[in-house]
Write a structure and sequence with these properties.
The complex is a heterodimer of chains A (402) and B (475). Chain A is α/β, with parallel strands linked by helices and 402 residues long. Chain A folds into two domains: 265 residues, TIM Barrel (Alpha-Beta Barrel); 79 residues, no CATH class. Chain A has 15 helices and twelve strands. The radius of gyration of chain A is 24 Å and the shape is globular. With 475 residues, chain B is an alpha/beta fold. Chain B has a five-stranded mixed sheet, covered by helices on one side. A five-stranded mixed sheet of chain B has the order 9-8-12-14-13, with helices on both faces. In chain B, strands 1-2 form a two-stranded parallel sheet. Chain B is elongated and about 105 Å long. Classes of the chains: A alpha/beta (402), B alpha/beta (475). Chains A and B meet through α1, β3, β4, α2 and α3 of A and α5, β3, α6, α7 and α8 of B.
């Protein structure tokens, strides 16, 4: 790989890193034939972790960071003075294959600034995917960013090559979008999501290949005043209406070349973490947005306690729950017990009544669960204590004599 | 030798090969189970046999084991834990002695212990799939060879082979470890002896680029080494080229963030590209020719297809006839409605007094969808989803042609024009398709398929009558 290409790669990787999604999961298991290259394992692989704790799974780059749009939160907006670069289709193909053969990556995540027009840009993205698949026999993972302003035929084509398509919502409310991203429109975004969803559902029913790992989106949190509750309400709607595989939350992060429209301070990273936990409760634990929001204050999640614990602390009358008799949906409400642990409890209790020692073998976070559950040899005594919250989320800062 | 005589002469000693010896373990278990030797009386070792241990009973046939148990054996035997064989044999013994459902109890201490061991091996496998790095070398004959050096925690080299074969089948590669090596030549896999780090290449021409990528992907505003170390423990770093950059990345992160925050909003250095921004909106194809170029260059959205068959006829035609999809002959000729059905349509139009020069013909689906049977390419009906893939093109095409009447020939065309499936016969006659004046009738190929001659003539007459009505609609 020559110097010039390396330099471009640095610019175009730096420009793409604010997109939080990295998953290489959800694609059907497949293996290349004798002349092809690559495979997918179903669950995805993280090939490295950068010192921010984020995984490097796909080669996540922009085709170019030249951009005609002027989205305030984005380092690549046209009014920013960030250094610019542009790859050719062949260059992206060569780097992807070169990295893949050395086992650096699972595949490609390709996005782009808007050059010339949304259609032209989207076509270039699609051509990279087509070249990898059709001409190089590449069977690794491909995630293509969809440009919602591009013509619908490009989505029809992109879905043939990509494992996953994603359209970023970017901002949780329509008002924030029109204020901070003047070239984007919520209507365009939702119509592209709708089209993609319809095609994915049809293809699945007809056993054809079209974006088999579904579609995802990203919402930036903390660039405007939207509360966690309304972010989650938006997510619930997206999961419900467009069958999204994932909603990614990206805490607004200070960027080089900031816009004057943005807040100066980043939101606490913990907020992003809590949103992911809440999102999980929404999708896998049978919680509603109202219940999750009820665990916090004023529509914001509790930053100190995870949303399930926060909810439990405010709904103590629903506890304790007996692990030997309660149905699955109640067990899922116990803080500290994940889906796996609950399934193990259900399996184990068919063999006999469970004691604490048994449960300790079934979950890694028994301590958090103890105040909320009943076992054969355990009844919690701390449930009514005023200081239960402090005991569970760690001591308030110790005071020292000075 | 009988189990009873063994019991009196001390524990049975089983000697397995060093590392992962699944075959040896299986053979031993078969013999122990056949001889009825309980776990307390077995000593497992990978050393040379001691003088005092009783030898293993004679060979015995395989016996059934629950699949879950076989999976556990496959993983746990790779673990470095010296007790692994004893634990596995205890499990198998209990499964065979009244505790058939033992594995469905995750709270059982033995099951839990084995699950923990299996989990550690799974993690080790996963980390090897993730963190192994190949370096490319080129032999004198120009052949590429990818070589990796890796140090797994457990004896997983054999267990990991299939993953790398599946992924890099077309490459020639070697994986070197302190316990042994794997060599793939594109066709066969060979086991080789233990290797050392010095046997692997020292560098690779992509490494600088990769390291640069890794550094650029890091957001210094989110430094979080606890998460990084949890997922990518330090012990792996020395064999990962990108990890060499970590200390410097950590060191410079705070000052980079400070610089970002202190830097105030800047005036753009370049002029606002107003013209380009305005031009962005004019992106859709501006003419039928442009649209057709896009269709012709695009990948077929149905299987079988070889090339796009575009619509034909004048822009501004009075009537547009939309069929299902090109057939075998249309695909060969690259033109719509040239086969038997097209000829029938021409004849019927002439009879109905429709001027063929005022007609635009096209298809809902632009490619011939077929399956090959023997030497024949057999037409196969497009699905609802496939029809929808083509809808946007059909809509734009009709916008450019702007006919006075759009005629749907057959059910596929109706679906494409209406956007949903509708029963054909019940809706036969005049209609509107999303604000276009339209008409629904049968596809001429249907007329060719009516078997009874009398019924065929009747169907044809009705079709011609439809066309007369269509002619009238344009007035």
């Amino acid at each position: 790989m020559d110097e010039r290409l390396s330099a471009k790669l640095r610019i175009l990787a730096d420009a793409a890193k604010y997109d939080a999604s990295c998953a290489s999961s959800g694609a059907p298991r497949r293996v290349a034939g004798k002349t092809g290259l690559g495979s997918t394992t179903g669950s995805g692989i993280c090939h490295a972790y950068t010192p921010d704790g984020r995984c490097v799974s796909l080669l996540k780059i922009l085709l170019t960071n030249y951009c005609l749009y002027d989205c305030a939160y984005c380092v690549n907006r046209r009014s920013s003075n960030t250094p610019r670069a542009r790859f050719t289709v062949d260059e992206v193909v060569a780097i992807t294959l070169g990295f893949y053969k050395r086992n650096y990556i699972e595949g490609l995540f390709l996005s782009s600034g808007i050059i010339r027009s949304p259609d032209h840009t989207m076509e270039q993205l699609m051509l990279v995917a087509r070249k990898l698949r059709r001409d190089s026999g590449f069977m690794g993972y491909i995630h293509l960013k969809t440009i919602p302003e591009a013509s619908p035929w490009l989505i029809e084509q992109a879905g043939l090559w990509a494992d996953r398509l994603s359209i970023n919502l970017e901002l949780p409310t329509d008002a924030a979008l029109s204020r901070l991203a003047p070239e984007k429109s919520a209507t365009n975004i939702k119509s592209a999501m709708g089209q993609t969803h319809e095609r994915i559902v049809e293809a699945k029913a007809e056993r054809r290949r079209f974006s088999p790992a579904g579609q995802s989106t990203q919402v930036i949190v903390g660039a405007d005043e939207t509360t966690d509750e309304s972010v989650l309400a938006t997510s619930a709607l997206l999961y419900d209406r467009y069958g999204l595989s994932r909603v990614y939350y990206s805490a607004f992060s200070p960027i080089p070349e900031p816009s004057a429209l943005l807040p100066l301070k980043a939101p606490p990273l913990q907020r992003e973490n809590r949103l992911y936990q809440a999102d999980w409760l929404l999708r896998h634990y049978g919680f509603t947005v109202d219940e999750i929001a009820g665990g916090g204050e004023g529509g914001m999640l509790d930053l100190k306690a995870d949303p399930k614990l926060a909810w439990a602390l405010k709904n103590r009358d629903r506890f304790p729950i007996d692990v030997n008799t309660a149905p699955r949906e109640l067990l899922l409400r116990i803080p500290g017990l994940g889906k796996r642990a609950v399934d193990r409890i259900l399996a184990a209790r068919r063999h006999g009544r469970l004691r604490l020692a048994d449960i300790a073998r079934l979950t890694a976070s028994l301590k958090r669960a103890l105040p909320f559950l009943v076992a054969l040899d355990h009844r919690p005594k701390t449930l009514d204590r005023v200081d239960l919250r402090d005991r569970l989320i760690g001591q308030p800062e110790q005071l020292a004599l000075f | 030798m009988r189990g009873t005589t063994i019991a009196t002469s001390g524990p049975v000693e089983v000697v397995l090969a060093e590392g992962a010896d699944e075959e040896g373990f299986r053979r031993a278990v078969r013999r122990l189970i056949a001889a009825g030797i309980p776990p307390e009386q077995v000593a497992w070792t990978t050393d040379t046999p001691s003088l005092f241990g009783a030898p293993l009973p004679e060979a015995a046939p395989p016996f059934p084991l629950p699949r879950q148990a076989a999976d556990l054996v496959r993983l746990v035997h790779c673990h470095r834990e010296p007790e692994r064989h004893a634990l596995l044999y205890r499990l198998i013994w209990r499964l065979r002695h009244g505790e058939k459902r033992l594995l469905s109890n995750p709270a059982d201490p033995l099951v839990h212990r084995l699950q923990q061991l299996a989990k550690a091996v799974r993690r080790d496998l996963h980390k090897m799939h993730a963190f192994l790095r190949f370096r490319r070398t080129v032999a004198a004959d120009g052949a590429e060879h990818f070589v990796a050096w890796f140090e797994p925690d457990h004896f997983i080299l054999a267990a990991t082979a299939q993953f790398f074969v599946d992924r890099f089948r077309s490459l020639r590669w070697s994986i070197l470890t302190p316990e042994g090596s794997l060599h793939w030549d594109g066709e066969t896999l060979a086991r080789g002896p233990a290797a050392s780090r010095d046997d692997a290449p020292k560098t690779d021409d992509f490494e600088a680029g990769w390291r640069g990528y890794y550094e650029a992907a890091f957001n210094p505003a989110r430094l979080n080494m606890r998460a990084t170390k949890a997922e990518m423990p330090k012990k792996y770093w020395r064999n990962m080229p990108e990890a060499q950059a970590i200390p410097e990345m950590i060191r410079t992160a705070p000052s980079r963030v400070e610089a970002m925050i202190e830097r105030e909003a800047q005036m753009p250095a370049k002029r606002d590209p107003q013209k380009a921004v305005a031009a962005m909106a004019r992106q859709e194809p501006g003419s039928l020719e442009e649209l057709n170029r896009i269709i012709a260059a695009s990948e077929p959205l149905v299987p079988g297809a070889t090339r796009a068959v575009l619509g034909e006829g004048p822009v501004g035609a009075t009537w547009a006839f939309v069929g299902e999809q090109p057939g075998d002959q249309e695909d060969l000729a690259g033109r719509p409605f040239v086969g038997p059905a097209g000829q029938l349509l021409d004849r019927a139009m002439a009879e109905a007094g429709i001027d063929r020069r005022e007609v635009y013909v096209t298809n809902a689906v632009k490619h011939f969808k077929f399956v090959v049977k023997g030497k024949k390419r057999i037409h196969s009906k497009p699905t609802m989803g496939e029809i929808k893939h083509y809808r946007w093109w059909l809509g734009r095409e009709l916008d450019f042609v702007a006919p006075r009447v759009v005629v749907a020939l057959g059910a596929t065309a109706v679906t494409a024009l209406a956007g949903r499936a509708m029963p054909l016969m019940a809706n036969r006659g005049p209609t509107t398709f999303e604000n276009r004046k339209g008409y629904i009738t049968v596809h001429p190929s249907y007329l060719l398929r009516v078997p009874d001659p009398e019924a065929k003539a009747e169907a044809y007459a009705r079709f011609v009558a439809d066309l007369r009505e269509i002619r009238g609609l344009a007035a």
